[in-house]
Amino acid sequence: MYKIIGADGKEYGPIAADVVKKWITEGRANAQTKVLPDGATEWVTVAQIPELNANIPTIAPAAPVYAPTAGSSGGADLVSGPAIGLIVTAALGFVATVIGVVWNIVGAGMGMNQPGMDPEMQKFVTMFSGTMGVISGILGFLVSALILFGALKMKKCQSYGWAMTASILAVIPCISPCCLVGIPIGIWALVVLSKPDVKAQFH
Asked: What is the pTM of this model?
């Protein structure tokens, strides 16, 4: 004997197994219909009862539909290459900034110690090796830091805005660290980021 939940959501029974089988044959019950076997405490589906599931009409299984996910290969894999390239660009920018600062300090000292140097030339060397050198170094460090941050976000598909910012900074002449490396990598990153399937991976 079974209790059964009808299509109207109401409980019926107890009814005999033969009645349930008849309902299945007539389409009044299906594999997902809930039943409570006599003496049981938990409701189960018709499909879970061997006595009843033999009467369920056989339906050919539908072909599986492929749906790419954020963790599957696709857009997320495409950003890995340019993201690593931007990380390398930022690292080279940090190195270039340090070398530039040291060069400016050494250059200023050597320039000031040159005997017979024109006073105007001394001012020029002092300005560009001193104050301007410091400003240039700070700007270079800041740009490299922004590119690195955006590249790390891009690699994890975490922030489309930061990924675009890092890519744009990399292609701006005189701002991009290591222009010969940064410009082509920045263009590559922008091309990849412009693809709809890549943009969809970001969250």
From this structure: 0.51
